[in-house]
Write a structure and sequence with these properties.
With 488 residues, this protein is of the alpha/beta class. It is built from 15 helices and 17 strands. The chain is globular, with a radius of gyration of 24 Å. The relative contact order is 0.20.
C-alpha cells in the first residue's frame, strides 16, 4: 500500500478534522484563523489588522521603544541617591536590611558585607529635582522629560530568567514577549517592515559575558510571524534579502507567487498557522528589499540630528546607531523596537566599565528623547530605559582594591525610567529605604509594570489572552495591576 494512503487510514478523528479542507475542518480552520489574526485583511493604513475589539480603551501610545540594558544597571550609582550609603561606606550592612533575603551564589550570605558609596556624585536636575549621577550628564539634562520608577522589584536573581520574566512574564523561556503580544493584539501600521524589530549592541572592551538569547524577542506559542526580527550589527541588517546575481525582481516575484500557491494549498489541507507565517514572511522579505536600504540610508539626516546621538551614531552596531534606527523605524510604522545593550554586569568593574557603559548609552538615550520630541513623535511613543534588576548597595570584592570594586545582582529594588506615551514627565515614583536596599513606598512588581505598558497602548492586560494547551495565557500571567500614579 502507498505509505501516504496508509497514513491517512490511520488518522485519528482529531487529526482528520484538523487536516480537512472542507466541512467541519474548514469551519474549525476559519475559527483558528480568526483567533490567530491570520485571516485579517490589510488595514487601510497598511499592515495587518488588529484583533477584534482592540484597543480596549483609548491608547496613549502607538509605539514602544525599549532601551533594554542587559546585565542590570546599578541604581544606587546612577539614579537612587542615598546619603546614608555614603555615611556608612565601608561599614557592614545592618542585618535587618537583609534578613531572609536571597542573593546570587556569588554573594551567598550577605551578612557582614560592607556597604559601598556611589562612585560619583549625585545632583538634583531640572525643575523636577530628580537625582541623577554625574555619570549621566546627558540624561540629567532631560530629567524633566522622564518618569523615574524607583520602586521596581522582581522575583529573579539571575540574568536570563530575570530578562525573560520582565519581557515575557515568566522566568522559563517559551512565553511570548512584549513585542510579540503587541503585534498580535494591535497588528502593524506598515506593510514594508516587520512590526517588531530587535537590535543589539555591546560596549567595546567589556568583560561582561552577557548573551543575547533569541527567546528575549520570541513569539513563544503565538504563531512565529509575531516574533521579533533581529537586525544585525554589521553587514546587511537582514540576511538573504538581496537577490542572487542574474535573478531579476520580476523573476523573483513570479517565484514567490508560485511558492505562495503551493503553500496555500498545503495550508488549506493542514491548517498549520506556521504555513501562513511562511507565506507572510516571504512577502515581507520581498518588500524589505526596498524598505530596508531606504531605512538604513542615513545620508540625508541633518548634522544637528546626528550630533544628538553622539560620535558613534554612524557606526553600525553601536547603541547610538541603533537608537537612531529606532526613531526611523517607528516613523515608518513599526510597532515595537527593542534596543538591547549588554555590559552592565559589573561584579568587579564599577570603577572602570560602568564609566564605559554610561559613555556609550547616555548621549544616545537622551538624544533619542530629544529627537522624538522635536519631531512630535514622543507624545505617542513610549520609551523605556532599564534592565532586569538592580545591584547591591554592598560591595562585591575587596574594599581596599578600588579597581576591582563591584556589586552583585539585586532583585529587591531597582530603577527604570520612562518617557512619552502617556506617562507623567518630571515624576519620581516610588521610594526605597535609606540604603537603596528595599522598596518602602509604591512598590511596582514586574507584572504591574507590564500591565501599565499595555494600558498605555490601550490594552487591558487581563483581556489580551491566547489559549494554549488548554488554558488562557497572558503577558502578566495571573498577576499585575496598572500603576495609575505613573499615568499623565
Amino acid at each position: 500500500m502507498n505509505p501516504l494512503h496508509e497514513r491517512r487510514l490511520q488518522l485519528t478523528r482529531r487529526e482528520f478534522l484538523g487536516r480537512s479542507g472542507t466541512g467541519l475542518g474548514l469551519a474549525a480552520l476559519a475559527g483558528l484563523l480568526g483567533h490567530d489574526g491570520l485571516s485579517a485583511a490589510p488595514a487601510a493604513s497598511g499592515g495587518l489588522n488588529r484583533l477584534p475589539g482592540l484597543p480596549h480603551l483609548a491608547p496613549k501610545a502607538k509605539h514602544v521603544i525599549y532601551l533594554f540594558q542587559n546585565g542590570a544597571p546599578t541604581h544606587v550609582d546612577l539614579f537612587d541617591f542615598k546619603p546614608k550609603l555614603q555615611q556608612l561606606h565601608g561599614k557592614p550592612v545592618p542585618d535587618d536590611y537583609i534578613a531572609g533575603k536571597r542573593f546570587s551564589t556569588m554573594t551567598g550570605k550577605a551578612e557582614g558585607k560592607l556597604l559601598l558609596a556611589p562612585v560619583e556624585a549625585f545632583h538634583q536636575r531640572g525643575q523636577s529635582g530628580a537625582w541623577v549621577s554625574e555619570l549621566l550628564p546627558h540624561t540629567a539634562r532631560i530629567a524633566d522629560e522622564l518618569c523615574f520608577v524607583k520602586s521596581l522589584h522582581t522575583d529573579s536573581v539571575n540574568h536570563a530568567p530575570g530578562i525573560s520574566l520582565l519581557l515575557s512574564g515568566a522566568e522559563i523561556p517559551g512565553r511570548p514577549t512584549l513585542g510579540a503580544w503587541l503585534t498580535y493584539g494591535l497588528g502593524s501600521d506598515t506593510e514594508n517592515l516587520p512590526a517588531f524589530v530587535v537590535m543589539t549592541s555591546v560596549s567595546k572592551g567589556t568583560t561582561c559575558g552577557q548573551i543575547f538569547y533569541d527567546f528575549y524577542w520570541g513569539a513563544g506559542f503565538l504563531p512565529s510571524r509575531y516574533q521579533g526580527v533581529k537586525f544585525r550589527g554589521s553587514g546587511e541588517p537582514v540576511l538573504y534579502l538581496s537577490d542572487p546575481n542574474g535573478l531579476s525582481r520580476t523573476t523573483r516575484r513570479a517565484m514567490l507567487d508560485d511558492l505562495a500557491e503551493l503553500n496555500e494549498l498545503k495550508f488549506r489541507e493542514q491548517g498549520d498557522p506556521e504555513i501562513a507565517t511562511r507565506i507572510a514572511q516571504y512577502e515581507m522579505a520581498f518588500r524589505m528589499q526596498t524598505s530596508v536600504p531606504e531605512l538604513t540610508d542615513i545620508s540625508r539626516e541633518p548634522a544637528p540630528v546626528l550630533d544628538l546621538y553622539g560620535p558613534s551614531v554612524k557606526e553600525q552596531g553601536t547603541f547610538a546607531y541603533n537608537c537612531l534606527m529606532a526613531r526611523r523605524l517607528i516613523e515608518r510604522g513599526v510597532r515595537c523596537v527593542q534596543v538591547m545593550h549588554a555590559g552592565w554586569d559589573q561584579h568587579n568593574s564599577i570603577t572602570t566599565e560602568l564609566y564605559t557603559q554610561c559613555r556609550d548609552t547616555d548621549q544616545p538615550s537622551a538624544g533619542l528623547i530629544t529627537d522624538l520630541k522635536q519631531r512630535g513623535l514622543l507624545e505617542d511613543t513610549l520609551v523605556i530605559w532599564g534592565g532586569e534588576f538592580g545591584r547591591t548597595p554592598f560591595i562585591q570584592g575587596n574594599l581596599d582594591d578600588r579597581k576591582r570594586w563591584g556589586r552583585d545582582h539585586h532583585p529587591y529594588a531597582f530603577t527604570t525610567w520612562m518617557a512619552g506615551g502617556g506617562v507623567q514627565s518630571g515624576l519620581t515614583f516610588g521610594e526605597t529605604d535609606d540604603l537603596g536596599m528595599n522598596v518602602v513606598r509604591d512598590p511596582v512588581h514586574v507584572h504591574d509594570f507590564q500591565a501599565t505598558i499595555l494600558f498605555l497602548l490601550g490594552i487591558d492586560h487581563e483581556r489580551l489572552t491566547y489559549r494554549f494547551q488548554g488554558r488562557d495565557f497572558r503577558l502578566t500571567d495571573v498577576h499585575g495591576e496598572v500603576i495609575q500614579g505613573l499615568l499623565a
